[in-house]
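Dear support,

Our group has been running a series of protein-ligand predictions, and this particular one with adenosine monophosphate is the one our PI (initials K.S.) wants archived with full inputs and outputs. We had some confusion internally about which version of the output was final, so please treat the block below as the authoritative record. The input we submitted was:
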Amino acid sequence: MTATLDRLAPGSTIGILGGGQLGRMLAVAAAELGFDCVVYEPEADCPAGRVAARCITAAWDDQEALAAFADCVDVVTFEFENVPAPSLAFLEKRAIIRPGLKSLQLTQDRLVEKQFIQGLGLETAPFAVCNTLEDLDGAVAAIGLPAILKTRTLGYDGKGQFRLSQPSDAAEAWAALGGTPAILEGFVPFDREVSVILARAVDGSFAAYDVTENVHQGGILRTSTVPAQVSDALGDQAVAAAAQIAEALDHIGVLAVEFFVVGERLVINEIAPRVHNSGHWTQDGCAADQFQQHIRAVVHWPLASTKRHAPSVVMTNLIGKDVDAWADLADQADTFVHLYGKRAVRDGRKMGHVIKI
Ligand code: AMP
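Confirmed final output from the archive:
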């Protein structure tokens, strides 16, 4: 174990918490730079485990397994922000963690995240805390409709969300989310959605990819397109906001910030302290993709160029049965297919993506 700020040498081992597609693509990128990966994931036969040197299948609160994981890696990173904070805190005493606990804790809870963003002087959608149905009724009166009720924790891909159009929707929304602590967010009448994918290195330097324009359907990302249809000034402002957030988190690695664009105003929707679906286009659109960039930051290598080498790039997610079209997609010479090796196709499940340049 090298608990120093030195660059990790090829042959070192990177621990990845989480075994989904993001962990899988991180493990492939790490292998390309000569590193081995050990994946830690509660579910057996996970997508990342099948491309990593080793996979530890154990629960998030299994301290014996977490200690064994820490013992066999030189640095730990995570593929998603829902790793329980106590597990990361436990590992932090035994290993170098990049990014650190702060990035995880401030993005696990929508309320904490929004307060953090506003504390930096950046704009979010209006929101109100809802711990009871009465709170929700009050929030509807204060914020107005339409609005979206979102669970504070563990939501992704539109899960844990309910859109309210009229006050009488409140009881149904509250029941649909199971009465868990939530926030009501005012609906932002956005012109478009964009995101910034940025990497921050141990020395505080950062590199951002081109601003990406995203289209969601049913709360799930459908396409990411570069270049985004925004002015240079707005693009620069988005990158500056993402850099400010990364700096405030003392974040090391890739970080994504999703924005709503309203005229020439930027409203921050969400921060993801990790590689992000809206950065997948970099795999075929840039010389060094977000996965390599994250690994470089985590092993304390300098960041690579984020230069795009195609005039335009479109990434389309393959969701559920979309993946059945793999043979037709593979026939198209300018369309690059990326599949996650998931055993079962389910509605709404991200199975892969294609990148057209
Ligand atoms: P989220 O999981 O919170 O990022 O939400 C997924 C998608 O739902 C977003 O990318 C938007 O397309 C839409 N959405 C979420 N919150 C809002 C909001 N407050 N106003 C408008 N659209 C939203």
